[in-house]
Write a structure and sequence with these properties.
Number of helices: 4
Largest sheet: 4 strands, antiparallel
CATH superfamily: Pleckstrin-homology domain (PH domain)/Phosphotyrosine-binding domain (PTB)
CATH architecture: Roll
Shape: globular
Strand order of the largest sheet: 1-2-3-4
CATH topology: PH-domain like
Radius of gyration: 17 Å
């Protein structure tokens, strides 16, 4: 744990195989970024800024429920990889909550609001099926009264 505090890593895990972390896929959150590292001989490191994440879905099979593993499907407002899957991680429900809280904290720290994801300069709001009131901001990102 002291190692994590010195490097800025908030959470780390590996993709589990048959409920054991014996793979070469690593996931971690460091310095407001979600990192996915894959490979042994050829390593790929994918980085997504937390404030760009717009949706997190948890999927857990019966076997996953028994052994405490599951997957998180993370949708981000990026061009390269709009959907990131954290496959077979331990304690997926806790990690989903942690990631969600870190995303909100990152947005708050950077003063990012929803319209920055869905509208462009001079182009106006981009209509989406999540925007029921037509103001260009998805309803789930608007503040409650």
């Amino acid at each position: 744990m002291a190692d994590q505090e010195n490097t800025g890593i908030v959470w780390k895990d590996r993709k589990h195989f048959m409920w054991f972390p014996w793979t070469f896929t690593k996931y971690y959150i460091e310095n407001d970024r979600l990192m996915v590292q894959e490979g042994l001989l050829k390593t790929t490191l994918e980085e997504t800024l937390l404030y760009r994440i717009v949706d997190i879905t948890m999927v857990q099979t019966l076997g996953g429920k028994i052994f405490g593993t599951g997957s998180l499907i993370v949708k981000a407002k990026v061009d390269a990889t709009p959907e990131i899957v954290l496959r077979n991680i331990a304690r997926p429900k806790e990690i989903r909550t942690l990631l969600s809280n870190l995303v909100e904290e990152s947005r708050r720290d950077r003063n990012v609001i929803g319209k920055e994801f869905y509208g462009g300069a001079g182009r106006g709001p981009v209509p989406t099926e999540m925007d029921m009131d037509g103001d260009g901001v998805p309803d789930f990102m608007e503040e409650e009264n």
